[in-house]
Design a protein that fits this description.
Mean pLDDT: 89
Distance between the termini: 22 Å
Helix content: 40-55%
Largest sheet: 3 strands, antiparallel
CATH architecture: 2-Layer Sandwich
Strand content: 15-25%
Bound molecules: copper (II) ion
Radius of gyration: 14 Å
Strand order of the largest sheet: 1-3-2
Number of strands: 3
Number of domains: 1
Order of helices and strands: HEHEEHH
Amino acid sequence: MKLFRNLALILFVVVLAAACEKKETTDLIVDEISVPGATCEMCQATISASVKKLDGVKIVDVDLTRKVATIGHLPSVSKADLQKAIAASGYHADDVVKDSTAYENLPECCK
Ligand SMILES: [Cu+2]
């Protein structure tokens, strides 16, 4: 598990570095958002999809061990935008409370 986590982290940094090399992403900002409800791969997928819908989000990693979403995005996206998007998908995001309807619609394994 630890090895997987380290590999995932390394991969994330490599992809992030590659993303930064592109011209339009030179202003990439990286935010970490606490997602205490994230427990499985479905949660990862749901949370990733929620923020990728936002124009300007370039890269997302959801660490299930730390329960933290790390998101690389352009300055046009604020941390509040990210928190709102994650909360709307059914997960607490830092101090932004999850949408209860979205939570009810999550797969059983995610509740
Ligand atoms: Cu899940």
